[in-house]
Please model this.
Amino acid sequence: MGIFDFFKKNGAAEGTQKLKPGESERLQMLETIRRHLQEDFRDAPETREELNTFFMSLEKEMKKYVERKKQDPSPVDALPLFYVSGNYMQAYVCILPPANEGSPIDQEHFLEDMHYEGIVAGVDMDAVEALVSGKNYLWIRQIAQGKEARDGTDGVLEELFKRRYEQKLELDEEEMLQGQDFRKKNLIQIIREGEILCRVTPPAPMEEGFDVSGTPLYGKKGVPVRIPQGRNTVVSEDGLLLQAMISGIVVMEGENFSIQSQRVLEQDIDASMGNLKFDGDIYIRGDVKDGVTVEATGNVIIRGNVQNGKVLSGGTICVQGDVKGAPGICLEAAGQIQCMILENVTATAGGDICAGIIANCDVTSEDGSIYVLMGRGLIFGSNVTASKSVHAKKIGNISGCTNQITLGLESKLELQRASAMGELDEIDHTLEQIRKNISTIHMSGANRRPDKQEEYKNLVEQRNTYMELKQKKFEELEELKNAMRSVRTGSICSEEIYPVTAIQIEQQKLLIDRKETDCNIRLVAGKILLR
Model:
């Protein structure tokens, strides 16, 4: 039931009964309060429950007030009746008028009574003064309001670079078999010295509050952010920025941003710059041309094209443009080679080679596979060798170009073995001649003559050196032997193969002189099968 409905119903019900002495005055006072409430709090429904509770306590007090007037003709001073809400955030008052020539309300006594009731904070002195000076009896007025505590806000970290935990440049087998464009993988994030990695918004402090009794109220404190500072980064003096101390690659180490040292070149690499050699990774935003050589112990990432020249990498070569131009362009990588178009190129990778087109090239993967599945996925006019497998959408074309596809490195290993055996024979021949010279000097006793001692000493040192070379050559031959035993070739997979394409798997050969489709060429029991 609404507060005003309650007042009306209460008054109407009592008005229909036979009233006891003094009841008329009490009901009239209640009616006055009700009317005042309608004027002051009609548009404040959130306060009605509290006002209803206050009103019920007023009923009891007014019964006492009327009875006291009736029983004792002595003066009755004006009486402020206070009420504090259940949450102690609001305080209200209603002043009963004086009777029998009692004293009216005054501010000093009002404030004293209010203090004894425990209402000491958030007091609206303007409301008090207006209430007292206007002798506003039988009005319910709010005289105090507490202040809610406000929670602080947590700090905010704005990260301007992505958290990429897999920073490897290389594609895995599944990505290459799906023909994923390495340029869209976009794992490498380059940053310059002084660039901002993160911005920090500090936490806003909590604002204390209080209730009308003066009890302090506390909110939740704002939590500062943890700044993910890693290697080669610095926090600004005001603590609001995380910046790069050096130029390089943004990497994640645990939960922290770190910068990995890398040489970043913003322009084309041409004859005006000369050849480049760097211990680490190189990132080139332009082209490589004019026959220059770019060499790095780490990865080489080229945003533009390789138009001419040589690129040598102790890691992976990733060319986001094309590698084509005059014959003589050379790519050599200990890891992978990634490029959309290889044309007129000699390319050798220790790992896999991933491309969209290989045209008129000599391409070798020494310990991996060759994947030509991006874009057109075409091999033509090329000599392609892989230790494991070759995957392409199309090998050759209708023009009838010649292609050589070789799986397995047995022939190459055999050549290396033959070369090592020849070198070993030369070492043995030289070693035998040194031993004869040493024996001749020793048997003649000349090794004790001052004029021969230096010659004798040099011969002994040469013998020791060639003995070490012989041991190393034996070790090299053993490694080649083990490598030849471990060769396990895969297959040549292509949707279309055009003539003329020569296939060699280990020592077996096959010439494709007509168009073949859906090929999975492999060696089974010493024979090459097309499907």
The longest helix spans residues 450-486. The mean pLDDT is 85.
